[in-house]
Amino acid sequence: MKFCVTTPIYYINGDPHIGHAYASIAADIIARFARLDGLEVHFSTGTDEHGIKVARSAESVDMDVHEFSDIMSKKFRDMSDKINMSYDDFIRTTEKRHEKAAQTLWKMIEKDIYCDTYAGWYSARDEEYVTESDIVDGKTTNGAPVEWMEEASYFFRLSDYQDKLLDWYEKNPNFILPTSRRNEVISFVRSGLKDLSISRSKFTWGIPIPHLDGHVMYVWIDALTNYITSLGYPDPEKADYIAEMMKSCVHVVGKEILRFHAVYWPAFLMSAGLPLPKRVYAHGWWTSEGQKMSKSVGNVVDPHEVIGEYGLDPVRYFLFREIKFGEDGDFSRSAIEKRISFDLANDLGNLVQRVLAFIQKTDGRLVVDYDFSADERTLFENSRSLVSRMRPLMDKQDLHASLSTVWELIAESNKFVNDMRPWELVKNNPKKLNKVITALCESIRSIGFGLAPFMPDTARKIFDFINVDGKLFQEIQSDFVNQNFRAPFMLFPKKS
Length: 496
Ligand code: MSP
Hints:
Blueprint: E1 2-11, H1 18-36, E2 40-48, H2 52-60, H3 65-82, E3 89-92, H4 96-108, E4 113-123, E5 128-130, E6 147-156, H5 162-171, E7 176-177, H6 179-190, E8 196-197, E9 199-200, E10 216-217, H7 219-224, H8 226-229, H9 239-247, E11 249-254, H10 258-272, E12 279-283, E13 286-288, H11 303-310, H12 312-321, E14 329-331, H13 333-361, E15 365-366, H14 374-384, H15 386-395, H16 399-420, H17 422-428, H18 430-451, H19 456-465, E16 483-484
Parallel strand pairs: 1-2, 1-11, 2-3, 7-12, 11-12, 13-14
Antiparallel strand pairs: 4-5, 4-6, 6-8, 9-10, 15-16
Helix pairs in contact: 5-6, 11-12, 13-16, 13-18, 14-16, 14-18, 15-16, 16-18, 17-18, 18-19
The structure holds 5'-O-[(L-methionyl)-sulphamoyl]adenosine.
């Protein structure tokens, strides 16, 4: 079965920060879970390089915009690698393959396009047309400055798609998640859709429009097309693959760009006769130490810096454990430090350490015994069923609840150690000890798998301790055999 997941493609006007890393890690977790579940995954990310905003940024540092784009795009690729993203494709909108895809899509929707003049407000920061009623004190509701724009432009008949979109949302109730966001989009569409200006004529940093000299594409139609460029559009030989991937595709986006993905993008796809994605999932925003992140406040969280300080997996863990996926959160040092010492070092680290170090004390050998009594059976069954409890949550991208399910098994396993007191069994009931340890190895293996999408390096360490391949969830269903284990090391050493 095929599965596709995407991150937004990032504007390259500034350096990557934790907000970008967040969207990328979310999509990475979703991609990794699907791969472990045996699906054929296409996972794409990349950079959104055209538009006024990028052109002006290059200008402000006196650089040629191509050269500027190469340097900035590389920073996003480096960030993607730094956070251990398992992307299959890193797409740049300045690539030839993308120009071809965007121009083909334009031709496919041309029947819905007409020429007129745009006269109105525009926010370069959000690359967005703004209506008069959304401007307060010369700024948009997002606080972005606006400028007056008047130019010849091609328009897409978005107004024709109002009913079709409403019908789509109704027939596909999980197209937009979380549900609260879905309701916002539906009321926006119900309130009436205006035709959308999709070309620029006073400006050149964009994809040229075939046969329409002097016009480049509006950066959002260009950017949204990246999702199908990455799948191989418009190659006719890839048509079936693209269709199948799109139908299973989850677009992870920030809440402020939901409208582009849940209204404009499906309308373009409908117009072009292409399949719509399965879902658009809107995540929330991070503040830093209680304040909006901003260069002038100096509180922008640099992913390289926090990963350097706390380690990658703890940062990945924190971002998806601290808040519900979809809500806003605050990135603070005290909160991440708390999570590391309680959840990671105490709960997870100690469990793995105490069980595996105990095995070392008893010759380093696991002697399996699956002839469980009720005590071990419960832990065994809860371990084997971990992924099937996570799956329905992951199907709705409820990353937070899914991760909490892993921590419930960790807590249950720690309690099991305390109740069973293996250090006493070693002296007076070795038969029972083997059953207890077998059940615990089962739980540690399942925990490793449950963690793997979220904390891949940590999961790998756990798998190596207990000789587990760790490539597919299926492995959880096989019995352990008698074997020697290597001595474990601390997963999360305490900082001095
Ligand atoms: N280029 C467009 C997306 C085009 S997708 C076809 C864009 N780029 S962006 O670089 O401005 O933002 C990309 C993503 O980063 C968005 O999903 C946005 O929500 C996310 N974040 C930017 N700042 C953020 C926080 N402070 N917190 C969480 N995510 C935020 O929009």
